[in-house]
Amino acid sequence: LSKARTQKKKMEHRGVCSSVHDCLNVLSKVTGGHEVQTSNSTNQCIITGKIIIQQSHGQSAPGKSASIQLYSGTKFDPNTRKGKLSEKAYLKNGKSNKHDGTRITTYEIKFFVEPDFGIPGAFVMKNQHKHKFFLQSATLQIPDDQIIHFNCNSWVYPIDKTKTDRLFFSNTSYLPNQTPNALVELRKEELISLRGDGTGERKEWERIYDYDYYNDLGNPDKGLQHVRPVLGGSELYPYPRRGRTGRPPSQTDPLTESRPETINLDIYVPPDERFSPKKLSEFIGNSIKATVHFVIPAAKSLLQENTSHFESFDEMRNLFTSNRNQVMQGWVKEKLKNMVPDELLKKITHAIKENPTKFPLPQVTAENEFAWKDDEEFGRQMLAGINPAVIKRLKEFPPKSRNGDMSLIKESDIANNLDGLTLAKAMNQWRIFVLDYHDNLMPFLNKINKKGVCAYASRTLLFLRNDATLKPVAIELSLPSSSSGKESKVFLPSPQGTEAALWQLAKAHVAVNDSGYHQLISHWLRTHAIVEPFIIATRRQLSVMHPIHRLLDPHFKDTMHINALARSILINSGGILEKTLFTGEISMELSSELYKDWRFDEQSLPMDLVKRGMALTDSEKPSGVQLLFEDYPYGADALDIWVAIKTWVTNFCTVFYPNDDSVKSDYEIQAWWSEIRNVGHGDKRNEKWCNMTTCSDLMEALTTLIWTASALHAAVNFGQYGYAGYPPNRPTMCRKFIPKEGTQEFAEFLRDPDKYYLKMLPERFEMTLSVALIEVLSRHISDEVYLGQQPSLEYWTDNQQIRQMFKQFDEDLQEVEKKILERNRDPKLKNRWGPAKIPYKLLYPDTSNVGSRGGLTGKGIPNSISI
């Protein structure tokens, strides 16, 4: 009998079924054939499991307060119309360890099930503990040593709050019509629960995804100066939808959602979209350190000095080179007490003490202090800076507005600056380019130019030289005029003297236009805001078992949370962008106006390049296009990334969709696409969208979405500190117009052009606040996962073919890395470095780096918009 028990334990350990028949056979052998009595309770199989849970600091493990029941994925219970349900098993005897300050507890667990239970396809967890916990993963071992993985990564809240158990599916993917019968009802119920009923204010623990307008930007209860239009749902102010929080309306305006009295960093988003506690404390800690370093000294200087402006470029460089006290000052800590929970405040304080942050000189001024003044560098940043997807080839001269008004730039203005070519030849050779903000800004300048802001609508012409560098040849600055409708002046480059100094002022005003467009349109609208409706639709319409949900999930991590934080402190009335950008109070109104020109199909990289005249269609190229000239750093690297993503997406989709009919018959995909078009981007429902009836439609849409959430966002975000961290290079507003000859201001300008330039820039406090913001936005967070990486591939999918394809995707991206490094070593490609000596690495995947993350690296493509 002792031998029999030992053998039985070995069988259990291997997950072998210990049925009555098995036991009798074993016992018969070891007892020489003697009869052995067994009870019916042994007529069961054992499934062993491992559950991994993360806990917040200071909170106890759930232990026996948490239980799990398995659902069979193969055996159908006709009474419940779901898979067979096991008895409960409880978490006991967990083993804990700490990793990066987070306590991780692993539980071994056993389930006793009937011999015909089948293969588990899902489980439900009940948390009767007093605290929430983060369920990282679960692994089950069944007879025949088969392993089943559950990639959970989700918060499990106490049952007394949720009133329902938490359901998790295994990592096996099924199209809707291929779902095992035992899981069909569970699949439907889960999706229905995630949609909610559209009523009530959301509670922290509610996993509900619903849409709302941007009706939370204003705060009319604080006065008329905080009234902002509702964006979305109207022809006047179209906009993508955001996630709904259900806060009650304000007391003053029933259409506007009320706002908390103080900034609330603990804002609602569905639990699975929240930052990890570690990331949230790191993000807020970085924000505080940047504020302490840049903003507080500037605020103090306002009290101690007579001037609110920087007096010299050397003084501005001292922002970065001087030693500053990194200790969190008392009044900052007091403010934070009302903004974040006590537990999070402790983590932030600890993070600041343990990890002092260094603020290096921004790259644009590190190697060559005045490279930013160089015309070649000015042009290069339109191809390799942080806003490289706006410049266009000029198709007719002179440039013309949408209303038919002609530019005042004449052929004679630029004829002597085309390196010996006539204008006609330069146009025929596709060598004239334009950065044009004229039509976007002219209708808004009367609203913008208040409270000391001085902004023009700019139009800049550039000439492509033989070495592929861009030479600016003319800048037109325009203002509305009550008498003539418009007042414009053209500025031309000059090597020295007064004209050269005026040219620098004109370039600064162009940079202001470009900075505002970059933050509001290229960055916020075309990545953050555009992607959020896709996330909501994916959660509401695609089951977690759906292969496309599994494909997209890594590219949605933390985006809804960072967007919610942005609405709370960045883009709201009185927020940081209103304080630092020249567009001020009409910033989001302008963003809405330019959303009118947005079309999803034109967000495809090849189509965008062709539309802007920066590439030609070429069916023989993997990307389908050929760049107009090779030395376009953003374009060249972006196309390589695009091809790698599209190859991966195409390979993935062919596993699940053998033909077009399989896309048409996928009712979850059809509902997903319909909801994106008609609800999430409902204000654009009548514009051109693909019909989502072919494999090609699906692959193109998914490639565009993944490209936008990963590479495009990386290209416009993580280089901000390197270029805009030094405000003279990319000022965000001007406090003076260009002085007119014969005026007192012109005399002041002539006395000291550099000092006038600095006085034209934002005031000291505004400028340092802007630097602090972009430092935080440019800093990679330590828990980011980059394109081509998965923290645990076996948990993500059980499909070996998909795993191999993903490894190929990783290898393809590493080949892209090699190409980028080769380009950066090629001396003929002058735009890869430029006068400022900044190698173009904003689209360097950094996939091969599996070590530590974080910091101002200026490279790396995170999977998602998470900062």
TrEMBL record:
Gene3D superfamilies: 3.10.450.60, Lipoxygenase-1, Domain 2 (4.10.375.10), Lipoxygenase-1, Domain 3 (4.10.372.10), Lipoxygenase-1, Domain 5 (1.20.245.10), PLAT/LH2 domain (2.60.60.20). One of its GO terms (molecular function) is metal ion binding. Residues 173-867 form the Lipoxygenase domain. Residues 47-170 form the PLAT domain. Its cofactor is Fe cation. InterPro entries: LipOase (IPR000907), LipOase_C (IPR013819), LipOase_C_sf (IPR036226), LipOase_CS (IPR020834), LipOase_Fe_BS (IPR020833), LipOase_plant (IPR001246), Lipoxygenase_dom_3 (IPR027433), PLAT/LH2_dom (IPR001024). Pathway: Lipid metabolism; oxylipin biosynthesis. Belongs to the lipoxygenase family. Plant lipoxygenase may be involved in a number of diverse aspects of plant physiology including growth and development, pest resistance, and senescence or responses to wounding. This is Lipoxygenase. It comes from Davidia involucrata.
